Every structure is written in C-alpha cells, then in structure tokens.
C-alpha cells in the first residue's frame, strides 16, 4: 500500500478520534447559535428606556419624535417581512395582495416604509396575512420601541443654564422621578436643544447616565442634521411658493442586482452562493488553525517518543510530510462538512423553511462556475498553513519551543484578517489587488474577493500562483522537515532557516 | 557469503561537529552484533545512517547487499523510546508498522495478533498503548519491529526499562531470531547483555571505532585478573613473576585484585600464597569483563 496514503489515513484517524475533535465540532455550531440567538434574546429582554427632549429652540422635538417613530416602523416592517416569508404562503398571498407582497419583499426600501406607515403599521398587514399563515405558525411579536420619548418635566424645562446639569443629573440617576409617568423610575437620556441651536456655534447636548445609548445618539444626530438642512433649504424658498413642502424628501435608494431572481428563496440561494467563498475563507482560517496546531503537536510528540524515527525507517521524509498534509486536508473537509450538516439541522430545528432554501442554495453553489477555483484556493490555503505548522513542529524540540516560534508566525498568518474589512468594502481596489499577490495570502484573499468577480485573467493568474506557492512551500518545508525533524537542538535562526529552505 | 551489513569509511558531520568519523565494520548474516559506546559516541547517528534516515557525508553503507533505502521493507527497527502512538491499540500499532513495511492490512493484523498471542499479550491486543505497562509497551514495540519478518533487525537499547525477568525473555527472543537466520544489531549500555548475546562487538567512542571483534578478542585486550581472599595482607605478591599490578581490598571488602601480565596464569600466585603460609578463603582467575574492557577502551580514547 502506498506509504503516503497509509500515513495520511493514520493521521486522519488519529485526529478524528480525539476527544478534542468532537468538542471542536460541537463548539462551532454552539458559537453560531449563541451569535444568532443571544443578541435577539438580549434585544427582547432589553427594557424600554425613557428619554426626554428639552427643545428651547422650538420645532425640533417633533422632528426627533418623527425620526424615532420612523426607525421603529422600519424594524417592525423588517420583522414582519421575515415572519411573512417564514410563516405564510407568500405565493397565494401575492395573488391577492401584490402591493403588500412588494412591500414585504423589499422592507429596506423607503417606498415600502412609507407604504407601511401610511397603511397603519403592523395590524393591517397582519390581518391581511392571517388567512395565508401556515397552520403551526407562531403569533407575530412586533419589536418594541427601544426608547420612549416622554414629555420634559417642568423642573427640566425651567432650569437655568447654570442649574440644568444638576437637575438633569437628578433625573438621570433616579433621585427625582415623581413628575414622570409612574412606569419610569428615571430617565436614560436627556436631549437639550439650546435656544440659538442652528444659528451659530450652539450645539445640542446629549446627557446620559449609561453607555448603552449609542443608537439613540446616532438617530438623534441624523434627525437634527436633517432638520437643520430642511430649515436652511426653507429659508431659500418662501413658504408660500408652490412646492415648498416638497423640500422634505428622502431619497429611496434601492440596492438591486438585475441578475438576481425576484423570488426571495432564489435570491437567498444566490446570496449563499455569492458569499460561500467568503464563508469558506473564514471557516478555512478557523479549521486550519485548529487542525494545523494539532499537526504541530503531533510532530513534537513523534519527536519526543522517537516515533518519527520509526516512520523515517519506513518512508521517505517527503512521503511523511505529504501524508500528514493530506490527512489534515481530510480532517478539515470532514470538519466543514460536519459543521454544515449541524447548521442545517439547527436551521430545521429553528422551524424555518430551510430545506428548500438550502437545497436551492446547494444547487446554486454547484452551478457556480468558480467552484473549481474555490476548491483550488481552499486546498492551497490549507496546505500552506499546514506546511508552516509542520515546519514549526519539526524545528521545535518541545511545545515551549513551538510556542516561541508560533508567536511571530501567527502575526504573519493573521495579517490578512486585519485587512478583511477594507478588502470587503473595496474588493477590487488597489490594496486588495496588491496584497492578493503576497504569496502565502493569495488563496485566502482571493476567496474573500471572489464575490466581487475579479477579472478572469486575475483569477487564472492567482490560481496558478497559489498552486506554485503551495508547491514551493511544500518543497521548502520538506527540506526543513528532513533536516530538523530528528534534531533536539534549539530551533535555527531565521537566516539559517531560510538557507535550509532554499537549499544552501 | 556477502555481509548483511557493511559500513565503509562512513563519516557524518553536523556543522563543525563530527558525529561519526571514518567508521568501517561489517556483520555476517545470522549474527548478533553488540553496538556499544558511551553517550555521545555516535551510535544513534550511525544507526540512523544504517536506516537511511540520515545520509553519510562520505563512505558507504550496504544492508543485505543493497543501498539501505532500497531494503526498508527487509529491515526492522526498534527505537530506544516507545516509538508508538499512545492512543493506538496494541494490535493496530503493530499492524500499522507492518503495512508501512509493505504488508497487506489484513495480513498485518493477523500477524500482529499472532505475535501478541505468542508473547502472552493476546488479552491486551485491543488495549491502547497508553494503558500498557512499560514492559508490555516495550514488547509491543519489539513486535512492531518484527511484524514484517525482516531479515535484518536494528534494536536501539532494547532492554531499557525492562525488569530482569523480561530482560531474560527478550534475550531468548533475540537468540531465537538469530537462530532463524536473522541478522541483529543492538545497542546497549548493559554490558552483561552484550556479553551474553553478541557474536561480535563494535565499540565506538567520540565518533570513532575503538574496537571490532569477538568477545574473546575483546578479552584479549586486557590481562586476566586474580581475586584472592586470605587471612593476611598479600602485598608481597607484587614481586611474583607475571603480576602487573596489585589492588588491595577496599574497607569492608575481602578480596585482593591482582592484575596479571599477558600470558601469565594464576599458578605462580597460588604457590606464592602457600609459601607464605597464608590461609586462603577465596581464589579465582578470570578474564576481564566486558564492562572493564569497555571502560578501558573509553578511558584510552579520552586520554
């Protein structure tokens, strides 16, 4: 039997029968569940918070209230859309209520939001949906408002600039709440619009006793900015001019891809197919780090027990090296497959219409013309990470040695992750294109950039470059492995390492 | 017949350090060679070169008449430490090495179980290596080296960690392998094993060969020694012909040690003792032990 295969098989069995492997299989889906459900649960359990507006300039309080109402309506429409597509027969619903269907299909659009608010909000839509709900559909729970604007109490309204902060402090820390509605024991925030706001350098003030009000601050800032702009525009146009009221408009920007299906399920499948490479890139990083570090520990253990000598008496160093790498690839693929199955089961358990969605997503994925390319990048990256960890393992006489070498290596390995934010925002930009040609990062970064459809020539060239880099890495690591795997001396210096890697 | 093992002018350097220097020796098929040397003598490096794990800088090594890389499947190797995966079961550990040595998987498992049965470890076939005693694990390791029925076996410190009973069992097993025509090279720090088992000896010190030959040839390197117990001091024996050196007993020890010159025997000593009227409690004349020869060789090389 081929020795490389035998070693790969042994490595595979060795890793998948470890207790740690099963734990890692379970931890990832658990992490996903926590990442999805904890924020929802926290959002559901967050208490409503009261705030007030002291509007000494006049006219701004209404603007702020309108902004908050609008934000709440947007969240409710989004939740209603999710609920409808998960719990109702939308095909039948569309035949009778095409307008409402269009609104629920695009809950992000400004037109849908206006339609939703003009139609009376949640109740009328729910009533229309009722005949089309699936038999076991749970009742819809509308997201509650996060902030409730209450009327400013008289002591706050009447406080002088010198005493305002002290009075505000009493309301914020709950020392004074008798003149609030009984359900409120304190105010979470107070917005002060000064008398000459918008005229000069006066700024609105946001007083808060806690840090959890960032979204409120953002909303209020946007609302105040819009209000100031509107006022400035109105000064240019007399109020009696025809069309002056039309100055209060907001642009309805619809994000649209003409290649996308108008069917929500198919659209979801396309999204899955689009983001598969990015998801694979991140999964790849997690899986590689997990398995490659086990590979490293395995080599150190083999060195300490001299099992490596037994292997070397049976097979050539490169057969051992490649066998180990193939074993890790197999473990990584099994890990990802197992995670995929677990996530599918979780989705089914969650009660969503997951099977049809996942089926269509899988068919979309299999129909992706770049699938071979995705596999090339994916395998190259696993091999590169594995080879680096094997090199470290072969140079280290102990785990302590390995950790000393791992530190600088990890700084290099995680560098692409630090650039991910910028690359996702501008996947075809100069930075993304240039760093994609740094040898050991190419597969990972190209996976991240695939959804932006880089030019075919760039894809072909980076794929060839990835394969060449991987082959070169394995060749160089083979030299290091062969030279170092039997030694118990201190790891070589970086210069000596490079000389060994290139054969001088 | 061709030698089963032949090293000619083998040298291995690691940077400025010469681990093995111009090593030449051979071993006939079916013989047992004791490969001796103090720590750092170059034994392990030599063994690794024999296994083609390392390549010599100069010189050549032939095993079973071929380059070592071409006869991997005909060579078995037992490393000093437990060269086994701790979480593997005993039969799987043995069979794994068998498959790496070219056996088919079912054959390797069948042979592994038979060997375990033969060695009284049949009940432990499905026990993980980490669950075995040190002696059992050592036996499993030995069986892994032998599973593919190799013609040549290299055993690095095979007796390490075994109790006296298991050491005797292992000696018997090694002799039985040799009786079946297998050639065996083993390294050890326990000279009694080498004395009992070896047809030939090679002693290495500081990377170089200090001795190669049979046990008898080794014993000829040092004079015989007489040990005498008597009711009085025996310093007068220094004047007897054929005596090279006299070592009085240490406090609490009864015997004088008398080192004889080459060719001398004990008769003159015995006559001199009786002439002096001393009453003897002990008298023997023996060749030097391998331990003494080994120490002498190492000291000579270190001078």
Structure notes:
The complex is a heterodimer of chains A (504) and B (303). Chain A has 504 residues and is mainly alpha-helical. Helices cover 67% and strands 4% of the residues of chain A. Chain A has 21 helices and four strands. A four-stranded mixed sheet of chain A has the order 2-1-3-4, with helices on both faces. In chain A, helix 11 packs antiparallel against helix 13 (317-349). Chain A starts with a helix and ends with a helix. The mean pLDDT of chain A is 80. Chain B is α/β, with parallel strands linked by helices and 303 residues long. Chain B is built from nine helices and 14 strands. Chain B has helices at residues 43-50, 90-100, 105-118, 134-146, 164-179, 191-197, 215-219, 267-275, 290-302, and strands at 5-14, 17-27, 32-36, 58-63, 66-67, 75-78, 152-156, 183-187, 200-205, 208-213, 225-230, 243-247, 256-260, 280-286. In chain B, the strands form three sheets. Chain B has a six-stranded mixed sheet, sandwiched between helices. In chain B, strands 2-1-4-5 form a four-stranded antiparallel sheet, covered by helices on one side. A four-stranded antiparallel sheet of chain B has the order 12-13-11-14, with helices on one face. In chain B, helix 2 (90-100) packs across helix 3 (105-118) and helix 2 packs parallel to helix 4. Chain B is elongated, with a radius of gyration of 23 Å. Chain B starts with a strand and ends with a helix. The A-B interface holds A 1, 3, 6-7, 10, 14, 17-18, 301, 304-307, 309-316, 486 and B 48, 51-54, 69, 72, 75, 77, 79-87, 96-97, 99-102, 104-105, 144.
């Amino acid at each position: 039997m081929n020795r490389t295969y035998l070693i790969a098989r042994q490595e595979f069995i060795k890793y998948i029968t470890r207790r740690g492997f099963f734990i890692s299989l379970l931890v990832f889906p658990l992490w996903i569940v926590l990442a999805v459900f904890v924020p929802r649960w926290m959002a559901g359990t967050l208490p409503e918070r009261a705030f007030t507006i002291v509007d000494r300039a006049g006219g701004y309080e209404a603007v702020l209230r309108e902004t908050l109402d609008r934000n709440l309506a947007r969240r409710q429409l989004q939740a209603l859309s999710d609920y409808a597509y998960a719990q109702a027969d939308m095909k039948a619903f569309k035949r009778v209520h095409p307008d409402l269907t269009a609104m629920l299909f695009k809950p992000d659009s400004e037109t849908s939001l206006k339609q939703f608010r003009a139609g009376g909000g949640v109740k009328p839509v729910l009533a229309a949906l009722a005949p089309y709900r699936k038999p076991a559909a749970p009742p819809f729970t509308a997201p509650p408002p996060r902030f409730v604007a209450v009327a400013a109490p008289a002591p706050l309204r009447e406080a002088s600039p010198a005493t305002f902060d002290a009075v505000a402090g009493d309301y914020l820390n709950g020392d004074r709440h008798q003149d609030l509605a009984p359900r409120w024991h304190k105010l979470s925030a107070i917005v002060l619009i000064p008398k000459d706001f918008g005229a000069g350098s006066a700024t609105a003030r946001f007083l808060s006793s806690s840090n959890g009000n960032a979204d409120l601050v953002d909303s209020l800032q946007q609302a105040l900015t819009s209000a100031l702009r509107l006022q400035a525009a109105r000064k240019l146009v007399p109020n009696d001019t025809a069309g002056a009221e039309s100055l209060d408009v907001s642009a309805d920007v619809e994000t649209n891809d003409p290649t996308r299906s108008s069917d929500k399920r198919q659209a979801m499948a396309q999204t899955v197919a689009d983001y598969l490479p990015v998801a694979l890139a991140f999964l790849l990083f997690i899986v590689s780090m997990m398995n490659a570090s086990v590979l490293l520990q395995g080599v150190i253990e083999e060195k300490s027990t001299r099992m490596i000598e037994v292997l070397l008496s049976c097979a050539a160093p490169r057969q051992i090296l490649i066998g180990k790498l193939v074993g890790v690839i197999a473990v990584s693929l099994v890990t990802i497959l197992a995670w995929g199955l677990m996530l599918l089961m979780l989705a089914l358990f969650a009660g969503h219409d997951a099977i049809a969605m996942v089926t269509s997503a899988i068919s979309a994925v299999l129909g992706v013309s770049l699938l071979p390319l995705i596999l090339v990048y994916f395998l190259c990256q696993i091999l590169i990470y594995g080879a680096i960890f094997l090199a470290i393992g072969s140079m280290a006489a102990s785990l302590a040695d390995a950790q000393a070498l791992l530190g600088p290596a990890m700084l290099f390995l995680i560098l692409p992750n630090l650039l991910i934010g910028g690359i996702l925002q501008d996947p075809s930009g100069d930075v993304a294109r240039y760093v994609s040609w740094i040898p050991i990062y190419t597969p990972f970064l190209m996976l991240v950039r695939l959804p932006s459809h880089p030019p075919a020539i760039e894809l072909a060239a980076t794929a060839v470059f990835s394969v060449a880099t991987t082959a070169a890495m394995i060749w160089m690591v083979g030299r290091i492995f062969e030279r170092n795997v039997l030694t118990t001396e201190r790891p070589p210096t970086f210069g000596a390492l490079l000389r060994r890697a290139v054969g001088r | 017949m061709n030698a089963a093992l032949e090293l000619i002018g083998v040298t291995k350097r690691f940077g400025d350090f010469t681990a093995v220097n111009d090593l030449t020796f051979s071993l006939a098929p079916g013989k047992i060679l004791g490969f001796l040397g103090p720590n750092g003598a170059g034994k392990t490096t030599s063994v690794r070169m024999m296994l083609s794990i390392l390549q010599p800088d100069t010189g050549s090594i032939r095993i079973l008449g071929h380059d070592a890389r071409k006869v991997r499947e005909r060579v078995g190797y037992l490393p000093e430490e437990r060269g086994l995966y701790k979480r593997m079961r005993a039969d799987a550990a043995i069979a794994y090495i068998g498959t790496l040595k070219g056996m088919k998987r079912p054959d390797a498992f069948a042979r592994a179980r038979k060997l375990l049965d033969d060695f009284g470890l049949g009940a432990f076939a499905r026990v993980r290596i980490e669950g075995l005693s040190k002696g059992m694990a050592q036996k499993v390791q030995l069986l892994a080296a032998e599973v593919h029925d190799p013609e040549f076996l290299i055993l690095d410190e095979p007796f390490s960690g075994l109790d006296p009973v298991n050491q005797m069992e292992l000696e018997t097993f090694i002799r039985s392998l040799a009786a079946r025509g297998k050639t065996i090279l083993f390294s050890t720090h326990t000279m009694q094993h080498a004395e009992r088992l070896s047809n030939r000896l090679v002693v290495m010190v500081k990377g170089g060969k200090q001795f190669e030959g049979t046990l008898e040839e080794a014993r000829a390197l040092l004079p015989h020694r007489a040990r005498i117990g008597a009711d009085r001091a025996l310093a007068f024996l220094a004047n007897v012909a054929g005596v090279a050196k006299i070592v009085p007993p240490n406090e609490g020890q009864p015997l004088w040690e008398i080192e004889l010159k080459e060719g001398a025997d004990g008769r003159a000593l015995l006559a001199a003792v009786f002439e002096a009227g001393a009453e003897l409690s002990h008298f023997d004349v023996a060749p030097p032990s391998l331990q003494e020869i080994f120490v002498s060789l190492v000291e000579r090389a270190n001078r």
